[in-house]
Each structure stands twice: as C-alpha cells, then as structure tokens.
Amino acid sequence: MTISRIRPALGMMILASAATAQPLDDIHLNVIPRTQAETARIQGALAAPDNFDAPQPFEQMSGGAATVRARLNQDAFSQASGNISFERELDFKVGNGLFKKIWVSAPSSTLASDGLGPLFNARSCQRCHIKDGRGHPPEGPEDSAISMFLRVSVPAGHDDLVPDIEGYLATVPEPTYGLQLQDFAVAGHNAEYRLEVSYEEREVALSEGETASLRVPSYRAADLGYGPLAEDAMLSPRVAPQMIGLGLLEAIPAEDILALADPDDADGDGISGKAQIIWSPEFDRPMLGRFGLKAGAATVREQSAAAFAGDIGISTTMFSAGAGECTAAQVDCQAATHGDNDFRGVEIDDDGLDLVTFYSRNLAVPERRNVDDPQVLRGKQVFYDTGCTACHTPKFVTHRLSDQPEQSFQLIWPYTDMLLHDMGPGLADMRPEARATGREWRTPPLWGIGLTKEVSGHTQFLHDGRARSLLEAVLWHGGEAQPARDRVVSMPAADRADLIAFLESL
C-alpha cells in the first residue's frame, strides 16, 4: 500500500502524543499482562551496572533463552531460536525455504514460484539478505548492487490522502518510479535504473596523532529506463540490514519504548528520541514503527510483505498488486502476465507469508563473545561513560506472550531504543518517512555487529554501507550524537581501542 492509497476513516485517531500510540501498537501480539511482582523483577534486571569489573548476570545471552552458540562462520545469523521446539523448528525450516526461494517470471509451469517482477531488485529474499546478514554497496563497476537500492518519493500535494498523524511528513511515490528503484526486470521490460556510487575520502584527526579516513558517498540513478525522475524527487540509499532478533524487537512492550522518548529534550541532555508512528496497512490504524532504517514498518509480517512487493514484485493479500512496484505510468509493466491467476489469487498466499514471517521472527541472536575479557569490560565502561547508551539502550524485557514462546518474557540486550534520532547533516538523506525527518534514523540494534565479517564477508556499516569499520561508523555520528562522537575523537587511543573491542564482542 502506498500513502496515496490510504483511505482515512471517519474519525481517524489523531495522535496528540507518542503515548497515544501505545494501546494500538501491541494489538497484534497475544499479551499476558505483567504482574506487580514481575514488574519489580524487571526493574531490577534492567538496572545499569554498579561497576565494570565483571559481566552483568545473563549478559552473554544477548537474545535471552532464544540465544544460540556463536558460530564463527557464515551461518552465525542463520540459526533458529535456541528455545524453539522441535515441531516449531519445522515451520522455521519451511520458512527458510521460502526465504531462499528463487522466483521466476509468469507464465511458468511452476505455478507456486511464478510472478517475479516484472520489475525487481532480487529474485529471492536471501539474495539481498545474504546468509541473513548485512548488505553492501557495489564496490566498482563489476560488483552487483543487489543488496542495495534507492528509495524514492516526492512531497505530497494538497489533494493526496495522507494519515492524520501529528508530525507526519507527508510524501507520496514518485509518479513514474514508485517508492523504490528496481535495477532488474524480466525479459521484455526495461530495468528502472543502474546504481552508481562514488566516494571522496575525508581525513579525520584523532587524539595521540592517530587519524581515520571517512569516505563521503555520492549516488546517481543512471540509465533511467522510463524517463527522468520528477524534479522534486528525493532519493535515499539503503543496504539490506541483518535479520537476527526481529521477533524479540517486535515483542518489546510499546510502553517501554515510548517511555524512552523525549522529543522536546525535556531533560536537557541533548538527546531527543522520537517515536515513529506509521499507518499500518496490516491493521489499518496508526501504530508504533519498529522495523526498517527509519522504522517505517510496525510488524515483522508487514515488513516481510512490503519486501515481497517492492524488492521481488510478489503480491500478498496485504499488497495485492500483481505488478508489484510498477506504476500507472509503466503501462507495459501493468499489462504484463502476473502469477496471481491460480487458486491463490496472489503470488504468495497467507500461509506462505506467515511461514516467512515466522522464520524472520526466529532468526536467533548469537551469544556474546569475550564478555569477561578485561579490554571488553573496559570498553563497555567507555561505551557508558561516553554517552552511547543514551540512544543504544542496552536491554529490555519482552512481553509475556501466549503463542510465541521463543520471544516470551526474555531479558534481551539489543543496544537500541527503537526511536528516531537526528544524526546530523553528514548522514542525512533529506527524505522524510512518516514522522522521520531527512536527518533522522532509527537507532540500529548492535547485537551481532561483531560477527559481520564472518557472516557477510565485509565490515561495512550504516544505512548505506559507507563506513568500512566500526570506528568509521562512530565518526559519522552527528546531530544528537555529536558530543559522544567528539569524546571518541579526543579520548586516549587506548580507550578508543577498548571501545571497539567491546563493540566487536556484541
């Protein structure tokens, strides 16, 4: 569903504050209310450490009981929740098969697999989220951009239908190209573009004579297949994020996330986290955004359906257009044969979408490594003292859930507040998304970040992969994070090394 297709119901709730969203958000979860005794236990479990001489209780178990042993290879992010039952692991494996499934164009004799495109970014979920890990920008003309694409939109006009949500920054799909640019097409159709990326190196001076180099990216939508973009088109580069722990993030109580929000910086600490509120196509109401680089999706199922539609051109009951992201201006694409002409009515039915959702919810978080290493413990203290936990909230306790035992009532360590923050002009894409401005991004979870090299074969971070190391990622922080970034620049070199050792242990 695009914003322009939303039909505002009579009396649509106006969100006067972020807290208003809370009762609506957890409606998709079968929640068992916490008792007073449980609430007291949770407060104790979430307390900050008294010292940094030893690990905190259960700190090694990043995903609670769902945590799995850390595999130091490409399979580190591809394991099922550690507490999953034998019967439910079968659903996980079937969902994995659908996640890896190679879709083909219609018409095809393989009716269960046809419907690709006609425009697409990849032929399977796994092609972008390789081994369930992090994507990367193309490195040179011979490298594929398959795990990266450009989002695109234009400012909404007076006649466009948009949600009545306070602070909503209304945009609509670009008239010709939709909401994202696809760099592949089935036979007989033109791809929408070819992504070009170039970099300029910028040296950063650090304390004690050390230096670092940041690469400043420039992006170009080359070889446009359907004419020029609109003059007011806004582009945003996105690499595929890692997939672990999504079900646990979905199970964090909305009230616990909203309690961290301080959009007006009332406490004066310079951090003004803001809740993302989006219109959910799954539940037809405003909900707390959690998933995506700007938290533009409320649930794992919604995010999965949107990826099927936008990335692969596969229709679901949630996004039912057989032509996927094709717009009305792309006449041949709309008129093409699609794979929704059999008994399913859509190209992947609800059973298939539910299995992919179950798989995505249960990709396990690996356990921490070296939690008791003196350098890692010192780096953890530097992380706290530098102010990183103001956005990268270390831990939560998930809802108690009646039908999701893997995610139910777990102490988890994701290192994110799930809120939007102004990250400064250096990281700005200047493309709003719902309540997120062009300078705001959701705080990314840090769990598993130290295994990126093992899983993805690279160490490229941030929303567009510009940072080639964790240190570069830190040095790109601006806006609300500028003071913390400056402390990293000026701190003793040994403290910087300890900080990186801590991050690599996550």
Care to describe what's here?
With 506 residues, the protein is an alpha+beta fold. It has one domain. The chain is 24% helix and 13% strand. The chain has helices at residues 22-25, 36-45, 86-100, 125-128, 246-250, 254-258, 300-312, 331-335, 350-361, 374-386, 452-456, 470-475, 482-490, 493-505; strands spanning 31-32, 119-120, 148-155, 171-172, 184-185, 194-205, 211-222, 234-239, 277-280, 285-288, 396-397, 400-401, 411-412, 420-422, 440-442. Strands 4-3-8 form a three-stranded antiparallel sheet, with no helix packed on it. It has a two-stranded antiparallel sheet with strand order 1-12. Strand 9 and strand 10 (285-288) form a beta hairpin. The protein is globular.
Broad shape: globular
How far apart the termini lie comes to 36 Å
Mean pLDDT: 92
Largest sheet data: 3 strands, antiparallel
Poorly predicted sequence stretches spanning 5 or more consecutive residues: 1-23
